[in-house]
């Protein structure tokens, strides 16, 4: 059990199939991954299991454990045991002195519970995580708008303007955490104030996007009162709806449809091949808004965390 030596072992690391394999080369070149974060369990030259972490930018600490695989087609306790041993060994090296590991993220098929092979694979990986102390945080819908879908019409109820300053957006982000259905937001509020959580989200994610900030929109009533906001952006992989929210005092009026339509239109005007988004499985109002806007659920995401 060891980390890979470098790019020359990417073929070895990629022997187990996963959608992120096609991104590994570019991620390594950009510094979002490092060889010392990419571990393998080998028997001779046979790859039995693997694990890898990812960060947003070169020089950052690991942000996600987003690769964890057991030998393709394997099942049963011995293979789970190998995964547990590998993950414990890798975490001890990557996070010495008992530091809390970052969150686990796994993309899974939208119908993974209905397909026996997919269900076994997902549940075995979750068992590996649970045996190292992790617990399920949330299951999320991965959503996609495609150019063949109609571009949403301009809202007749709301006006939209750019974000004037970071402080303005952070204040709105803090306010929408009241009554949030988002599991990550609720988890943040157990450890910090709403303002602290908003600042952290802005600095760690939104401020890092290299796409134009004049894409960002604040939705207002005709008199200028803010109703919500949307952050269309482009991360290192796709055009995305990075953040979408309605202020607590304006929820229940269907404004989410108008706001999502504006964010979708901003990106559609850039002639993008797709727009990606995600929301918690339990956030039914948001999921329904994406469905009404023509987004399809093409996958799900499992998030697990350590205490």
What report would you give on this structure?
With 307 residues, the chain is an alpha+beta fold. The chain has 2 domains: 2-132, 3-Layer(aba) Sandwich (Aminopeptidase); 159-306, Gcn5-related N-acetyltransferase (GNAT) (Aminopeptidase, 3-Layer(aba) Sandwich), CATH 3.40.630. The protein is 32% helix and 27% strand. The protein contains 9 helices and 12 strands. It has helices at residues 10-13, 24-30, 77-94, 116-131, 166-176, 183-189, 194-204, 255-268, 284-292, and strands spanning 2-3, 38-43, 46-54, 64-70, 103-108, 134-145, 159-161, 217-220, 226-234, 239-246, 275-280, 296-306. β4 (64-70), α3 (77-94) and β5 form a beta-alpha-beta unit. α5 crosses α7. The longest helix has 18 residues, at 77-94. The radius of gyration is 21 Å and the shape is elongated. The chain starts with a strand and ends with a strand. The model has no long low-confidence stretch (mean pLDDT 94).
Tell me the strand order in the biggest sheet.
1-2-3-4-5-12-6-11
In terms of DSSP E residues, the strand content is 25-35%
Rg is 21 Å
Structural class: alpha+beta
Q: Report the CATH superfamily of the largest domain.
A: Gcn5-related N-acetyltransferase (GNAT)
Can you tell me the CATH class of the largest domain?
A: Alpha Beta
Alpha-carbon distance between the two ends: 25 Å
Spans where pLDDT lies below 50 across 5 or more residues: none
User: Which architecture of the largest domain does the CATH hierarchy give at level 2?
Assistant: 3-Layer(aba) Sandwich
Please trace the helix and strand order, writing H or E for each element.
Answer: EHHEEEHEHEEHHHEEEHEHE
Shape: elongated
Number of helical runs? Answer: 9
> Can you tell me the number of structural domains?
2
The major sheet is characterized as: 8 strands, mixed
Which percent bin holds the helix content? 25-40%
Per CATH, what is the topology of the largest domain?
A: Aminopeptidase
């Amino acid at each position: 059990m060891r980390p890979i030596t470098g790019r020359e072992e990417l073929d070895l690391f990629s022997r187990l199939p996963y959608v992120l394999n096609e991104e590994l080369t570019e991620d390594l070149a950009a510094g979002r991954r490092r060889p010392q974060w990419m571990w393998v369990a080998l028997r001779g030259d046979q790859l039995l299991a693997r694990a890898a972490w990812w960060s947003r930018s070169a020089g950052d600490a690991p942000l996600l454990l987003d690769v964890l695989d057991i030998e393709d087609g394997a099942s049963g306790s011995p293979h789970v045991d190998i995964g547990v041993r590998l993950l414990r060994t890798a975490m001890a090296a990557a996070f010495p002195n008992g530091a809390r590991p970052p969150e686990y993220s796994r993309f899974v098929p939208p119908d993974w519970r209905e397909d026996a092979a997919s269900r076994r694979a997902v549940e075995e990986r979750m068992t590996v995580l649970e045996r190292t102390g992790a617990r399920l945080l949330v299951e999320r819908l991965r959503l996609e708008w495609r150019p063949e879908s109609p571009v949403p019409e301009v809202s007749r109820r709301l006006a939209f303007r750019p974000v004037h300053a970071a402080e303005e957006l952070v204040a709105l982000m803090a306010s929408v955490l009241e009554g949030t259905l988002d599991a990550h937001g609720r988890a943040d509020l157990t450890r910090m104030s709403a303002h602290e959580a908003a600042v952290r989200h802005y600095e760690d994610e939104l401020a890092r996007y290299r796409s134009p900030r004049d894409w960002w929109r604040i939705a207002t009533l005709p008199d200028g009162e803010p109703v919500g906001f949307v952050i269309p952006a482009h991360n290192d992989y796709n055009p995305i709806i990075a953040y979408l929210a309605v202020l607590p005092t304006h929820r229940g009026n269907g404004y989410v449809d108008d706001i999502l339509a504006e964010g979708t239109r901003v990106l559609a005007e850039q002639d993008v091949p797709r727009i990606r988004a995600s929301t918690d499985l339990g956030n039914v109002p948001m999921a329904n808004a994406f469905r009404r806007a023509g987004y399809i659920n093409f996958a799900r995401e499992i998030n697990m965390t350590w205490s």
